[in-house]
Amino acid sequence: MNKNTHFKRYLKLDVLPTPWCPGCGNGIVLKTICQSFDELDLPKNGTVVVSGIGCAGRSAGFFDLDSVHTAHGRALPVAEGIKYANDALTVVVVSGDGDLLGIGGNHLLHAIRRKTDITVICYANEIYAMTGGQVSPITPHNTKTLTTPDGNPDYPTDIQSLFGYHNCFFARTTAYHLGHMKKCITEALKFKGFSFVEVRTMCIVNYGRRLGYKNSNEMLLNFKDVYKMNDNAEELAPDEIGIIRVNTDGHR
Amino acid sequence: MPKQLLQGNQAIAMAAESAGLKFFAGYPITPASEIIHEMVNKRHIRVLQMEDEIASINAIIGASLAGLKTMTATSGPGFSLMQESIGMAHMMEVPIVIVNVQRVGPSTGMPTLPAQGDVIQCIHGSHGDYFPIVFYPNSVAELYQYTIMAFNAAEESLSPVILLSDGYISHLYETITPSGDFEIKVRSRSPLGSGNRHFTGLSHEDSLPKTSDVDNYRRLITRLQEKQQSVAQRYNYYEYLECSKDTDTLLISYGGLSRAAYYFKNDFSLYRPIRMFPVVEEIRSIASRYKRILVMEMNTGQYAHEIERILHRNIENIPILGGRIDLTEMKQKIKQKMNE
């Protein structure tokens, strides 16, 4: 089989298409996750994908592996239960920013604290997209959404800051930086302990078009303009992408 | 095994171990905390104290899908938090055991006092239609016995089974002889990591979400209901004490309160459901022999409504509220009801 198409072995191609809108970034992330699986040659029997609810949450059903599509916000405790029940499994959580940081935010704090050896891929599109486009925990300040017609009065959660001194892996990447995204996900999967990859991705239909973007590609190219790679950072600035590992002694 | 003096909650933990429990997740709550205290001392059981009851039930759902027998224990406030995921476990067909040691509610209520206010929540607490199997023992020996039954019923039905208790029987100390002479059911489904199945709370067919296929949804719910009914029928547990004197009255009570109701066995016939839900069919034939049916319970009539709904006849209800089980008061209330 052609190595470039080998990632497809992790997908249930017969259940496509996905329920995602044209221009959605989720497919890019889904494909890249499978490419990382392929790079590491993860055994299909022995890898489990767990997701929450929302657009990103629907990803789980497209993996040709055992997968669990949990209740809204509950992917993390389910994934932790799986991992603690069978340590030999590679457990990967795929979900959105609303699911992981909003309704499931408390579980994230404690999964970090417990350092459960799972990998979380957060499809960070800054919006509750499946329900039409309401403000999410990482929607930027002053941004208009269906539930913040006068602009978001709050400031977004800095996901990185939640990791504090805990011995974890955190990476930020975007749907534009394909090679970087794959590297982040692969490294996260290799990390022994709790790893979290924040993938900035785009929702044109329920978010971008209301902000004035003409199309999805414009949103994608915006990632290129905004985000700068920082490979040796101790802490990422809001406009930087890169990998942060916190050592066992608590130092970055 | 030799005779042992055990607290109700200790008996639950001991029985769970005998039934093959391997993973327990929970959150501290009165009057259920002794169960997790017991669990942490058991060598072959992985115990996690989670951040809340929502995390607890979801962790045991995950661990169960990964192949282990799992359990959580809580009281009313925690049970309320678990409701959404209980529905999910029914939809995904995940065997788990949930112990609810009831205390006085609603809300924080009276944490140290017993109640039976969560009876209807067991079957209607989560959204949508689902058909849980619920046991409610009334002694330390029975807590031991029905904890094992709960695990077996969970495995047979691939669904969450609820073991109700209350602050009274869970904190009661009695001498029991824990028997190892039980059949233990094993998991009929292979664990996660051995296929390409998709477990989802969405309406589904053969691992595929079917979010707008109405006929498929109807087939799914019918199948789940029939499955629950057929497994429940293997656990037809109740206690019926026919009065030696001629009486036209049947007194129904259950759980902790039914211990006090034995006092009235020479005045009325007594009926005690042990498998609370689905309601045991035999109640129909037993009830048909009596003119009056009194349901005495530590709530304002939750099981009375359910009996009324099933028997299509008038049921009289005697609420014993606020956690006080006082025989003088009970006698007075029954006398008053009989004179009405």
Short summary of the structure?
In chain A, 27% of the residues lie in helices and 18% in strands.
Describe the secondary structure blueprint for this structure.
The complex is a heterodimer of chains A (252) and B (340).
Chain A: H1 26-40, E1 47-51, E2 66-69, H2 75-85, E3 90-96, H3 97-103, H4 105-114, E4 119-124, E5 127-128, E6 134-135, E7 169-174, H5 178-190, E8 195-200, H6 216-226, E9 228-229, E10 240-245
Parallel strand pairs in A: 1-2, 1-3, 3-4, 4-8, 7-8, 9-10
Antiparallel strand pairs in A: 5-6, 7-10
Helix pairs in contact in A: 1-5, 3-4
Chain B: E1 4-7, H1 8-18, E2 21-26, H2 33-39, E3 46-49, H3 53-65, E4 69-74, H4 76-92, E5 96-104, E6 110-114, H5 119-124, E7 133-135, H6 140-157, E8 160-166, H7 167-170, E9 173-176, E10 198-200, E11 204-205, E12 208-209, H8 214-232, E13 238-241, E14 249-252, H9 255-261, E15 269-273, E16 275-277, H10 283-287, E17 292-297, H11 302-311, E18 316-319, H12 327-339
Parallel strand pairs in B: 2-3, 2-4, 4-5, 5-8, 7-8, 14-15, 14-17, 17-18
Antiparallel strand pairs in B: 1-9, 5-6, 7-16, 11-12, 13-15
Helix pairs in contact in B: 1-2, 1-6, 3-4
List keywords for this structure.
heterodimer, A: 252 residues, alpha/beta, Rossmann fold, eight-stranded mixed β-sheet, two-stranded antiparallel sheet, 6 helices, globular, B: 340 residues, 18 strands, 38% helix, 24% strand
Question: What does this protein look like?
Answer:
The complex is a heterodimer of chains A (about 250) and B (about 350). In chain A, helix 1 crosses helix 5 (about 180-190) and helix 3 (about 95-105) crosses helix 4. Chain A contains 6 helices and 10 strands; from the N terminus they run H-E-E-H-E-H-H-E-E-E-E-H-E-H-E-E. Chain A has one domain: 3-Layer(aba) Sandwich (Rossmann fold). Chain A starts with about 25 loop residues before the first helix and ends in a 7-residue tail after the last strand. In chain A, a hairpin with a 5-residue loop joins strand 5 (about 125-130) and strand 6 (about 135). In chain A, the strands form 2 sheets. An 8-stranded mixed sheet of chain A has the order 2-1-3-4-8-7-10-9, sandwiched between helices. In chain A, strands 5-6 form a two-stranded antiparallel sheet. Chain A has about 250 residues and is of the alpha/beta class. Chain A is about 25% helix and about 20% strand. The model of chain A has no long low-confidence stretch (mean pLDDT about 95). Chain B folds into 2 domains: about 5-235, Thiamin diphosphate (ThDP)-binding fold, Pyr/PP domains (Rossmann fold, 3-Layer(aba) Sandwich), CATH 3.40.50; about 240-340, Rossmann fold (3-Layer(aba) Sandwich). In chain B, strands 2, 3, 4, 5, 6, 7, 8 and 16 form an 8-stranded mixed sheet that branches. Chain B has a 5-stranded mixed sheet with strand order 13-15-14-17-18, with helices on both faces. A two-stranded antiparallel ribbon of chain B has the order 1-9. Chain B contains 12 helices and 18 strands. In chain B, helix 1 packs across helix 2, helix 1 packs parallel to helix 6 (about 140-155) and helix 3 (about 55-65) runs parallel beside helix 4. With about 350 residues, chain B is of the alpha/beta class. The chains are: A alpha/beta (about 250), B alpha/beta (about 350). Chains A and B meet through strand 1, strand 2, helix 2 and helix 4 of A and strand 2, helix 3, helix 4, strand 10 and strand 12 of B.
